[in-house]
Amino acid sequence: DISLDYESLPTVLEFKNVTLQPKDSVPVVDNVSFSVHEGEIFGIAGVSGNGQDELCDVLSGIRPMTSGEILFRGRSMSDMSIRERIELGMGYVPVDRYRDAMEMDMTLAENILLKASYDPQWSNHGFIRKKALDEYTEQVIMEHSVKATGPDDLARSLSGGNQQKVVLGREVNLGQSLMVFNQPTRGLDMGAVDRIHKVILSEKENKKAILLVSTELSEIFGLCDRIAVMYKGRFMGIYENGELSTARIGLLMAGIEEEAAA
């Protein structure tokens, strides 16, 4: 496996000293800097609750950062709306699909439309092009092996793994340049996990930049090119995959610096 020469690949996403500090509190994202390149899977490892969700919130535009800069292909994202980020080609699979990714009482087709309702592809003078949307939803169902009878199924009638596959299908098509996955396989059965891993690897083949947040070390080691370890809002370091043993990554996840460990 030839190690990627990251410097020679186009940079899609860049964080420069990004901090998110809620009022009267310590920073939840603390002076974080990194870049993700075309065709690279950049992993963020760490125990849940160390700022990973907040980092994704800042990136997707849900929360404004306190300081620093985020660049998307060299353009500042600071003042971009969520819609502008989507239109630039960013797909986001959030950690909690029930809260942030799907409406359980909507159909699969309606869920597919959620983030692209303003796209002329799906609407004609304010009316939804239902036939086109249904055909597209059928395509997502087939491509991602979703166990569903069709586009009119309610989201809540699907199993967790199948709901996640629908979210994945929608986001992969929106994310033409950048895909952000926050714990995409949490709580899913082995079949769904395997399917999602295959999709992530095929997106890498498609030269997309991929940010993968995961608490599963096997997932981080199995998929990522480079790995950052996050503890209490800051990065303990960025490593090439293969540089870190499980023992070393465990110490970093517990906030133990290299020098102290040595």
Q: Can you offer a commentary on this structure?
A:
With 262 residues, this protein is of the alpha/beta class. The protein contains ten helices and twelve strands. The strands form three sheets. It has a six-stranded mixed β-sheet, with helices on both faces. A four-stranded antiparallel β-sheet has the order 2-1-4-5, with helices on one face. A two-stranded antiparallel sheet has the order 7-8. Strand 11 (226-231) and strand 12 (234-240) form a beta hairpin. The radius of gyration is 19 Å and the shape is globular. The two termini are 29 Å apart.
Biggest beta sheet summary: 6 strands, mixed
Number of helices: 10
How many β-strand runs? 12
Shape: globular
Overall SS class? alpha/beta
Give the strand line-up of the largest sheet.
Answer: 6-9-10-3-11-12
N-to-C terminal Cα separation, in Å?
29 Å
Task: Write the topology of this structure.
Elements: E1 11-20, E2 29-37, E3 41-45, H1 52-60, E4 67-72, E5 75-76, H2 82-88, E6 90-93, H3 97-100, H4 108-113, E7 123-124, E8 127-128, H5 130-143, H6 160-174, E9 178-182, H7 190-205, E10 209-214, H8 217-223, E11 226-231, E12 234-240, H9 246-253, H10 258-261
Parallel strand pairs: 3-10, 3-11, 6-9, 9-10
Antiparallel strand pairs: 1-2, 1-4, 4-5, 7-8, 11-12
Helix pairs in contact: 6-7
